[in-house]
Structure formats: structure tokens, C-alpha cells
Design brief:
Chain B: Keywords: 2Fe-2S, Flavoprotein, FMN, Iron, Iron-sulfur, Metal-binding, Oxidoreductase. Chain B: InterPro entries: 2Fe-2S_ferredoxin-like_sf (IPR036010), 2Fe-2S_ferredoxin-type (IPR001041), 2Fe2S_fd_BS (IPR006058), Beta-grasp_dom_sf (IPR012675), DmmA-like_N (IPR054582), FAD-bd_FR_type (IPR017927), FNR_nucleotide-bd (IPR039261), MRET (IPR050415). The complex is a heterotrimer of chains A (355), B (320) and C (202). With 355 residues, chain A is of the alpha+beta class. Chain A is 28% helix and 20% strand. In chain A, strand 6 and strand 7 (165-172) form a beta hairpin. The longest helix of chain A is centred in the N-terminal third of the chain and has 18 residues, at 88-105. The radius of gyration of chain A is 20 Å and the shape is globular. The two termini of chain A are 37 Å apart. Chain B is 16% helix and 35% strand. Chain B contains 6 helices and 17 strands. In chain B, the strands form 3 sheets. In chain B, strands 1, 2, 3, 4, 5, 6 and 7 form a 7-stranded antiparallel beta sheet that branches. In chain B, strands 10-9-8-11-12 form a 5-stranded parallel beta sheet, with helices on both faces. In chain B, strands 14-13-17-15-16 form a 5-stranded mixed beta sheet, with helices on one face. Chain B is globular. Chain C has 202 residues and is an alpha/beta fold. Chain C has 2 domains: 27-134, Nucleotide-binding domain of ferredoxin-NADP reductase (FNR) module (Rossmann fold, 3-Layer(aba) Sandwich), CATH 3.40.50; 140-199, no CATH class. Chain C has 5 helices and 12 strands. In chain C, the strands form 3 sheets. In chain C, strands 3-2-1-4-5 form a 5-stranded parallel beta sheet. A 5-stranded mixed beta sheet of chain C has the order 7-6-11-10-9, covered by helices on one side. In chain C, strands 8-12 form a two-stranded antiparallel sheet. The two termini of chain C are 17 Å apart. The mean pLDDT of chain C is 96. Classes of the chains: A alpha+beta (355), B alpha/beta (320), C alpha/beta (202). Chains in contact: A-B, A-C, B-C.
């Protein structure tokens, strides 16, 4: 399959669009008609062909545009990418993991040629052809983590493991759901999750940590998380909240279908072999409500989930004020019919919207 | 979900007798592929098929973590043990095929440390061999203080001292040399972490001395693999699997479950990692807990670590 | 009474204890203002330990109220500093020379405790070698998440960032590395609608 890369923006004029292909493979996060926190971890061992789970690091039509947006964010605020001094080895681990995975999974787009420690990396979509010495920082234009994550969609939190905990000691974070790497760097698992409501009391983080501490080299894991974003804005950072927050007030019954996006994070977890660190890629997928409801099952289900979500979660996820407008819109796509279990679109087996 | 770490098919490429007790085994990937890199301190679980019995014993990897061409382990002959080490020493030969678990690290370097102070007793030197190689690649201050019974039994001491004459110190029991622990643990610069691997007595000595001198627990690391102990056979009802099995005299509860095809998780097989923790539903008898994992209030009959612990009594029902 | 009971909060928010004498290779104590009371109670509990201690004290407007009692407790070294900034280099030197096993005691305001703890951790002193006790002012050190400027001794919520001028509300989310709470623009979605400031914990 050859990917047709979009020429699009995630800011200002917001020309981001999903093709039919991207809509059908969207990682819809709700496996039933309601939502509550859970340790919804599973092994990350591929998925149906063409789905976002099929490859270790999914590359899609937004690749080039997302990398361009990341470069803009970093130029404006270099603190979005940081690595504490002891995390360099983990950076090399990550570079190796991504280069090996992408060159094996997308041989038409990426090539890795290794001769001892002399490595040649070819990234055709971005026009990169670099030869460097593995484990020699001086041979790359950036540190290893920054170098490879400027070429890979999704945010990356690199977690050191010690004292039976995970520590967010390095990261590349430019497409985040309103959290700051610069503020959170150096925190442990419970500290950086501290602002999340309800989940601590439910014991979710204790169980999740226990699971993650035991993720091993050959058994990566994954889960989905979600929130809502007005406009296809990748960089919903606290740093720039005073600039983008106002956009939330521009939602109207007329534009909600186009402007309101469901934002889904495909979170994966890999043990990094040389450093014993853990990398936590957080890949952000956006979809406009008007595109999402073209899948009848998803339209029905999203309406029910948003309608029944506890107010604390709607507040934390930042859409409590807009919930009435969103619900008015979504209710038009919920005819009350039952939905099939699971996240898949089931286009051919689920009935069309009854009017 | 599979029960333990993944599997690597390997061929034995070298078997080197170091001294009366210790033999080194080297392995290459059976399909000629590169072996995965690992971090210093990682172990691999060696799967041994000895007739009808399958043994899974953990050994520290001591090869260079960045060398994908081979893995190495060093095995101390334990005549009193249940046979895993004897099997390797006596039966495994160059050219044999074995299965290894992918590396798992439960004794990793703390990479935030400014200096690594390593204390080894006997065969406990092996994880440090790999850690020192890792630190050579990445840069990092270390000292190794290595105590052995005699020069002949001080495996790898010559190599280590030749490579790092200022950083490796050897202490021999038969020459009445003892690690000057009190002095070593006094006056280390801030950010020093101490690591100990060796016999239980040595570990206890280091932990107690460090605590007395005010060392915070997060700067003190230890590793001891317990070998499962033999004991009287006992029956176990496995509630989830709907099976009743008998644990033999020379096998562990974990091994008995595996023999019966029950999916039981594990990582260290030595009572340290917590992975195989299993709930007790009912019991009438007494437990022999041998692990380092459970809290005291969990040893009252609510949990058991099947990799090393046993039971004596009339009835035991587990949540597995 | 100089002790304040902070209401329960989220996991990133520091929790302070009560200083207690602890055996170790060296005894390093730092306090500001009413924090001296916590040091004095350690001295009372273990006068022998106090005689080996290196104490750095910042009176911060308390005049001689605590300096004389501290002197009377007879620490090995007593250094009175006019401000945290003035003693940072000295503290760096003292922490760097502290052997493993040294015990660190920090007492007083959150800003002082936080900054000294960040410095100690940066040097490599493990967290559990450091005891803390809050005394005195409940003012906070807050970082503006937007301009990254840090405002000391914030007493109200919301407050105006001393660097960029945005109106910030004070979260309980706390960074040990920055020794600061997080301040976030309060009127981003409704510019100009800024509630009247109220005193913290009022």
C-alpha cells in the first residue's frame, strides 16, 4: 500500500482532513455504550490489516504534516523535548526500536542499513538520508530521542524504572492533551497522574503501574484514551492554553459537526532493552464529529457515552461547557437502536441510521 | 497471554570449565539471528529437558549486553540442589539445542547514580560482569569489591583486574581477607549506589551495615536467587483450572503447575519478583514460605509464591 | 502556633512530616523563619546530634527571635544567611561534600524546603535522606506554565504573574524539580473575567 500524504495544517486555517480510508480505520475508543476508567491494557501484537494496530508505529496520511507541525512547536518552545542526563541510553534504545520497526513494517518508506555501529537511515517521505555511528551522539544533529521522534508521529514519554516505580525522565511532547512535559519531567507515575480525578480512588493507577513494571522486551502493551478538542489542534498544551482556550467558545450548533473533534490516544508501552527503561508512545488521532457519525454505530454510541459521562470527567476533559451543544448534535445520530459490542465500525452488519 | 517471558532457541557454542565449581556456557541463536540486547544485571531462564522433568532455572547474563552474537552464563555446580546445575554441568554439550527466556532485569543499575559501588560474593559476581561492560560503553564510575573462597575459585577475577586494575579489588577467604565494608560505606560521595549479589549472609551484612550508617534504602540494591527447596510431596486443588495436582519431592509448585499445563505467570522463579503470586482460597495445614516478596500479613494463608514455597497439610486450594 | 495542617490533596503535592533525629554520617540542617522551631525540637530531642550539625538559618523577618536559641543549642557550625539566594552557593558546597549516609533536615516555608530539596536531589542525595517539616507562612512558589516565570511567596488565588502579567489560578500540581506549584491562566476562555483574589486556604 502506498500512502498519499496530505498537505494540511493543524493550526490557523486548520486544513486537516481525514480521508474515507482514515475515517474507517479510526481507533474508536468505546467498546460499549458507556465509559469509565479501567486498566484497559492488552498485549500490543498487531491487529487487523490496515488498522492502526497493525504496525508497531503506525504511519498514515497525516505523517508529513504532523512532523511539520512538531517542528513549528519546537521552534517556538524547545522545552517540549527534554531528556534528563541519565536517559541518553534509553534514547538510543528508542531510536533503534523505531528504526528497526519502521524499516521492517514500511520497507517502501524507510530503510535501515547496519554495518556494525555504522548505520544508514533513509526516510523517504521526509527526504532524509543520514549515516551515523550508533551510540555516538556527536554523529547526529540532535540527541537520539529527539532525532527519531522528530520523524515519528505521536508523543513519547520515556520512563526510567527504579524504586518499583516509573519516572518520566525524558520525552517529546507536542501533541498532548493539556499536560506539560517541562513541568512533569522527573515525576513518578503517581505524581504525573495526580491531576486525574476519580482514578486514584479506584486504584486504577496502582494496578496499571504493577502491570507496566512487568512489561518485558518481547511483550509490548497498549490501551486507548480519549478527550475532546475544538478544531483539529494537535498542540493543546498548557503552555499555550491562554491562546487556544478561547477557541472552545467558538462552538455553535451550526459548526459543531465540523469543529468539534474526538481526540483519541493510542498509547503503547515497550520495554527498552539496553536501558531497562520503558517507552510510552502516545499517538493522537483526531476526527471531526461529522466524519465520525458517518459510521452509524459510532454515532449512536458516542452520543450515549457523552450523555452519560460523569460531570467530573467532562470537566477534566475540558468540554463540560460545550456538552449541551455536542449532545444536541449527536442526538440526531442516535435512533435508539442497540449497538454491537466492540470498537470496530461494523459498517456492513450494523443498520443505517433510522430517520 | 503467555505465562512467562518469550523464548529464544539457542545452540551451545562453548562450555568452559573455569574451576572445580563453575562452568561457563555460551549460546548463539539457533537460526543464526542476532540475540536481543539487554541491560546489565538481566537474567535468562534456561529451559532444561532432563528426561520427563523440565527445569527452568534463572541465570544472570554475563556477556557484553551490546554483543548480539552470543550470550554467556556461569553455572555453579550445586550438588545439594535439585539437579538443574548438575544437568548443565554433566549433560549439556557444545552443539546442543536449548531454549532461553528473553532477558528480564530485576537487578538493574540505577542510572541516576553518580557512582556504582558493587559488592560480590562468589558466583554473585556474574551480573556485575555484564553491568561493568555496560558502564564501559556508556561511561560511569564504578568499583567492584569481590570476595571469593580462594584464588582458584575466584571466577573472572583475573580478567576483571586486568581490565580495571584500579576499580576491582579481590578479597580471598583463605588468606583471611575481608571486604572493609564499614570503611567502604563511610565517605562515599553523594549519589553513590551500592549493589550486592552473593550468599544470603553477605547480603544481610551489607543491608544491615548500610542501614546503620544512614544509607537510604533507594540507594541500596541486592539480588539473591533462591533455588526452590525440595520437600514432602503435597496435593493442590487449582480452582480456576479445575485440576488437582501433586507436587513432587524435587519439584516446585510452579513446576508442577507447568507440568500439568496450567498457565502460571513467572519472571524470576526465585521468590523475588512477585509475578507468580497466587491467592489461597482454602487450606488446612502449614505453609513453608521461602520468598522475599510477601508481606508478613500475607503469609498467614492468604497468598503463596509457587516458585519457591511449599505446603504441608491435608488440603490446599489455590486461585489459579 | 507556626504549624499548619494542609488539607488532603493530590499525589504530586508535597506532604511534610515532623523532623526527628536520625543517625548518619553527617547532619545538615536548613531552616527559614519559624522553621527554627523544628530544628530546636530536634536539638532538644538529641543534644549530642545537634553538636555535630551544620545549621544554616535564614531569619526572614524574625529578627533575633530564633538566632539566639539556635546559638544556644550549640551546633558544630551555625551560619545565619540573609536570604536563600545568598546561601545557595554555600548550600551547594555543603551538600556536595555530604557523604552517603548524611541526614538532611529542611524546615520552614514551602519555597525554602522545595528549593533546597531540588538542589539536594540534583546533587544526588537520595530523597529519603531528606526530612522536611513545614512551619510558618503558607505562601507558595508558583511557576506560570505559560511564560515559565516563577513568582515567590504567592498568598492569593488567583494572582497576577509577576513576569508576563497573566491572571493565574494556583493548582496543587507540584514539580519537585522546579520546586514550584503550577499556575494556569484563569480567564483564557472568558478574557477579563477574573474572580476576586482570595487568600490561600481561606
Amino acid at each position: 500500500m502506498t500512502i498519499q500524504f496530505n498537505d494540511e495544517t493543524f493550526r490557523d486555517d486548520y486544513t486537516f482532513r481525514n480521508s474515507e480510508w482514515a475515517i474507517k480505520r479510526f481507533p474508536f475508543p468505546f467498546h460499549e455504550d458507556s465509559y469509565m476508567y479501567s486498566v484497559n491494557m492488552e498485549r500490543h501484537r498487531g491487529g487487523p490489516d490496515g488498522s492502526v494496530y497493525a504496525k508497531r508505529f503506525d504511519v498514515d496520511e497525516h505523517y508529513i504534516a504532523e512532523m511539520r507541525d512538531r517542528a513549528l512547536v519546537l521552534a517556538d518552545d524547545p522545552l517540549r523535548c527534554q531528556s534528563l542526563p541519565h536517559m541518553t541510553l534509553a534514547g538510543w534504545d528508542l531510536l533503534e526500536l523505531i528504526m528497526v520497526s519502521k524499516s521492517e513494517d514500511y520497507p517502501d518508506l524507510f530503510e535501515l542499513h547496519r554495518d556494525g555501529t555504522t548505520w544508514r537511515w533513509v526516510n523517504k517521505p521526509l527526504g532524509i538520508d543520514d549515516t551515523f555511528t550508533f551510540m555516538d551522539e556527536a554523529s547526529l544533529p540532535y540527541g537520539p530521542m529527539e532525532y527519531i521522534t522528530r520523524q515519528t508521529q505521536g508523543d513519547f514519554a520515556v520512563l526510567d524504572q527504579r524504586e518499583n516505580n516509573l519516572w518520566m525522565d525524558a520525552g517529546m511532547v507536542t501533541t498532548q492533551a493539556d499536560w506539560s512535559l517541562d513541568f512533569d519531567i522527573g515525576m513518578n507515575f503517581f505524581e504525573w497522574h495526580a491531576p486525574v480525578p476519580l482514578a486514584h480512588e479506584m486504584g486504577v493507577f496502582k494496578r496499571a503501574l504493577k502491570f507496566l513494571l512487568n512489561v518485558q522486551q518481547d511483550s509490548p502493551a497498549r490501551r486507548l484514551n480519549w478527550t475532546m478538542t475544538v478544531n483539529p489542534l494537535l498542540d493543546t498544551s498548557p503552555e499555550n492554553y491562554h491562546k487556544w482556550g478561547i477557541q472552545k467558545t467558538t462552538l455553535t450548533p451550526e459548526n459543531v459537526g465540523r469543529k468539534q473533534h474526538l481526540r483519541v490516544e493510542l498509547q503503547t508501552f515497550y520495554r527498552l532493552p539496553r536501558s531497562n527503561a520503558l517507552v510510552f508512545p502516545i499517538r493522537c488521532y483526531l476526527i471531526a464529529l461529522e466524519d465520525l457519525v458517518t459510521v452509524p454505530k459510532w454515532g449512536r454510541r458516542l452520543h450515549r457515552v457523552i450523555r452519560d459521562l460523569p460531570a467530573e470527567l467532562a470537566t477534566y476533559k475540558g468540554f463540560i461547557d460545550n456538552r449541551p451543544i455536542i449532545l444536541d448534535y449527536l442526538s440526531r445520530f442516535d435512533d435508539g437502536l442497540p449497538t454491537s459490542p466492540g470498537i470496530w465500525p461494523d459498517i456492513h452488519s450494523e443498520p443505517p441510521l433510522q430517520t | 497471554m503467555s505465562a512467562g517471558p518469550g523464548k529464544l532457541p539457542v545452540i551451545v557454542t562453548a562450555k568452559v570449565k573455569l574451576n572445580d565449581l563453575v562452568t561457563r556456557f555460551e549460546f548463539a541463536h539457533a537460526d543464526g539471528k542476532p540475540l536481543p540486547p539487554f541491560s546489565g544485571g538481566a537474567h535468562t531462564v534456561v529451559e532444561m529437558r532432563d528426561g520427563d522433568v523440565t527445569r527452568l532455572n534463572p541465570y544472570s547474563l554475563m556477556s557484553d549486553p551490546v554483543d548480539p552474537t552470543h550470550y554467556a552464563i556461569s553455572v555453579r555446580r550445586d550438588a545439594a540442589g535439585r539437579g538443574g546445575s548438575m544437568f548443565l554441568h554433566d549433560k549439556v554439550q557444545v552443539g546442543d539445542r536449548l531454549v532461553l527466556g528473553t532477558p528480564v532485569n530485576l537487578f538493574a543499575l540505577d542510572l541516576t547514580a553518580r557512582k556504582h559501588l558493587m559488592i560480590a560474593g562468589g558466583i554473585g559476581v556474574t551480573p556485575f560482569v555484564a553491568q561493568i561492560k555496560q558502564l564501559q560503553t556508556t561511561g560511569g564510575a564504578f568499583e567492584l569489591h569481590y570476595s571469593a573462597r580462594s584464588q582458584a575459585l575466584a571466577s573472572y577475577a583475573d580478567d576483571l583486574r586486568a581490565a580495571h586494575p584500579k576499580r576491582v579489588k579481590l578479597y580471598l577467604d583463605d588468606q583471611s581477607q575481608q571486604i572493609p565494608l564499614e570503611r567502604l560505606l563511610s565517605g562515599q560521595p553523594p549519589g553513590t549506589h551500592v549493589y550486592v549479589c552473593g550468599p544470603r549472609g553477605m547480603i544481610d551484612w551489607v543491608l544491615a551495615t548500610a542501614e546503620r550508617l544512614g544509607w537510604p534504602p533507594e540507594a541500596v540494591h541486592s539480588e539473591e536467587f533462591l533455588a526452590p527447596q525440595s520437600g514432602k510431596p503435597f496435593d493442590v486443588e487449582l480452582a480456576q483450572s479445575g485440576k488437582t495436582i501433586t507436587v513432587g519431592e524435587h519439584e516446585s509448585l510452579l513446576e508442577a503447575m507447568e507440568r500439568e499445563g496450567v498457565d502460571a505467570p513467572y519472571l524470576c522463579r526465585g521468590g523475588a519478583c512477585g509475578q507468580c503470586e497466587t491467592g489461597v482460597i482454602a487450606h488446612d495445614g502449614t505453609f513453608q514460605h521461602h520468598d522475599h516478596w510477601l508481606e508478613d500479613d500475607e503469609r498467614d494463608g492468604s497468598k503463596i509464591m509457587p516458585c519457591v514455597s511449599r505446603f504441608e497439610g491435608t488440603r490446599l486450594v489455590l486461585d489459579r | 502556633m507556626s504549624r499548619f495542617h494542609f488539607p488532603p490533596s493530590i499525589h504530586s503535592r508535597p506532604v511534610y512530616g515532623t523532623l526527628a533525629p536520625r543517625a548518619g554520617a553527617a547532619q545538615i540542617m536548613l531552616a527559614d523563619a519559624e522553621g527554627a522551631e523544628a530544628i530546636l525540637s530536634v536539638a532538644q530531642a538529641d543534644p549530642e546530634l545537634m553538636r555535630r550539625a551544620h545549621v544554616i538559618y535564614i531569619p526572614k523577618g524574625t529578627g533575633d527571635r530564633f538566632t539566639d536559641p539556635l546559638r544556644a543549642a550549640a551546633p558544630d557550625i551555625l551560619h545565619i544567611a540573609p536570604s536563600y539566594g545568598a546561601c545557595t552557593q554555600r548550600l551547594h558546597r555543603v551538600f556536595s561534600a555530604a557523604p552517603m549516609g548524611a541526614q538532611i533536615y529542611l524546615a520552614g516555608t514551602e519555597g525554602l524546603i522545595g528549593q533546597a530539596m531540588a538542589l539536594a536531589l540534583q546533587i544526588g542525595i537520595p530523597k529519603s535522606a531528606i526530612q522536611t517539616e513545614h512551619r510558618g507562612s503558607v505562601a507558595r512558589r508558583v511557576q506560570c506554565v505559560h511564560c515559565k516565570g516563577i513568582t515567590e511567596d504567592v498568598m492569593t488565588d488567583p494572582f497576577q504573574c509577576g513576569h508576563c502579567g497573566l491572571n493565574l489560578f494556583v493548582r496543587d500540581h507540584y514539580s519537585r524539580r522546579l520546586a514550584a506549584f503550577q499556575g494556569v491562566c484563569i480567564d483564557a476562555e472568558d478574557p477579563g473575567n477574573v474572580p476576586a483574589p482570595v487568600e490561600l486556604y481561606s
